[in-house]
Amino acid sequence: MNKGKIKIAVCGANGKMGQEVIKAVSAAEDMELAARIDIVNGEFASVEEAKKAADIDILIDFTQPASIYGNALYCLNNGINLVIGTTGLNDEQIKELENLSEKNNLGCLIAPNFSTGAVLMMMFAKTASKYFKNAEIIELHHNQKKDAPSGTAVKTALMMSEENESFTTGNCPEKETIEGARGAEAYNNIHIHSVRLPGYIASQEVLFGSSGQILTIRHDSMNRECYMPGVLMAVRYINENKKFVYGLEKIMD
Question: Exactly one of 7, 126, 141, 219 is catalytic; which is it?
């Protein structure tokens, strides 16, 4: 292997996102694919197995909610820097990964969305939250996505909540005649509605309302290639900065 290149392991290598990551890493002049990890027909079946056989600088994880936390704990306890695209981590788990990253001087970047357009949508929504006291989020994904709401929607709500204490100002008392009709209630009363249908890849709308006007901020992903510039940006950042980062917006100039 070329010692001058960043040695990358991809976890979830045979999934749709994993395959795109492998293509992007293989095409990057400053990176080298060190290991393909997947429980189904992977070069290695686990991160631990890959660690024993390969020299790994950074692991990129696009697996599933059930496995990401265990993968991340192993990496941060065994000298492997991390870029995480898998969603489903809760607030307590994210905090624990932050603590381990700082304790062991390892880089860990978690991004609910690696599309630069989606991140800009989230940033615009945060700005709009300074001026609107009512807002809701609708996220739409393919019907093979296992977690709901999406990590992007959760992160968007968190960013919006930093600018406003409540997003249901003036709403009348409500009663759901069918449970869940109003969606999930996230940070500072932001309602999130999850749609799962074949045909979508990933879309999100943030709706703001006030007297006489509606503002809609929407982003649509048409293919998985749109995430790759953000993934490579994250890898290069973590290679140079051994720190914890939650959200691609933190490293976008």
Answer: 141
The CATH number assigned to the domain with range 116-221 reads 3.30.360.10
CA separation (Å) from 130 to 11, 157, 217? 39, 13, 15
Spatial CA neighbour of 229 closest among 118, 145, 151: 118
What is d(CA 153, CA 75) in angstroms, rounded to the nearest whole number?
A: 26
The CATH code for residues 6-110+224-250 is 3.40.50.720
pLDDT in tens, 178-199: 999 999 999 999 999 999 999 9
Q: Is 191 a catalytic residue?
A: no
- Residue 219: active-site member: no
pLDDT tens for residues 58-101? 999 999 989 999 999 999 999 999 999 998 899 999 999 999 99
Q: What is the β-pairing status of strands 6-11 and 58-61?
A: parallel
pTM for the model: 0.82
Chain-centre distance of CA 198, in angstroms?
21
